[in-house]
Design brief:
This protein has 158 residues and is an all-alpha fold. The chain has two domains: 13-121, no CATH class; 122-153, no CATH class. It is 62% helix and 0% strand. It is built from seven helices and no strands. The longest helix has 30 residues, at 2-31. It starts with a helix and ends in a 7-residue tail after the last helix. Residues 55-90, 91-126, 128-154 form the EF-hand domain.
């Protein structure tokens, strides 16, 4: 009986992972998040302007198959980790491409100190003054630590 329960638990966990792999891109896109993204066109396999449950299942199955690199029909921790790292790398590359496009004003494929300095836009030169809360021209340890608290966890509070 315990073996049957363990087998059922394993199948439920794998089903949950598969569903997560399928739904995460859509939820991230709907929420404006930074997770993996899937376009409507990718889901609409037959190009008829709507997505069926079968198309969703096919997309999920393809995602599962691409993650199951050894083809054993199960996702190991290593396979899931590799998939997650790949997604992070893809996002990093997209951010880097956007940064280069925005900042490389002379289009030579490199960023000079001048281009980096000019990148501040409307916030240019205000970093110090934002940290110097009392406006005395110096940043105290308390002011420095307060700015660090605002940036913890990737969130910036104004």
């Amino acid at each position: 009986m315990a073996l049957l329960v363990d087998n059922v638990k394993s199948k439920l966990i794998l089903a949950g992972v598969g569903l997560t792999l399928a739904l995460t891109p859509m939820m991230a896109q709907a929420k404006g998040g930074h997770g993996p993204r899937v376009t409507f066109e990718e889901l609409d396999a037959d190009g008829n302007g709507s997505v069926t449950e079968a198309e969703m299942q096919a997309h999920r199955a393809a995602g599962f198959a691409s993650t199951d690199t050894n083809g054993d029909g199960a996702l190991s921790r290593d396979e899931l980790e590799a998939k997650m790292k790949s997604g992070k790398e893809d996002r990093m590359i997209r951010r880097l491409d956007k940064m280069m496009e925005r900042m490389d004003t002379d289009g030579n494929g490199t960023l000079s100190q001048e281009e980096m300095a000019d990148a501040g836009g409307k916030r240019k030169g205000k970093g110090f003054s934002r940290m110097d809360k009392d406006g005395n021209g110096e940043i105290s340890k308390a002011e420095f630590e307060q700015m660090g608290k605002k940036h913890r966890g990737g969130k910036h509070k104004k």
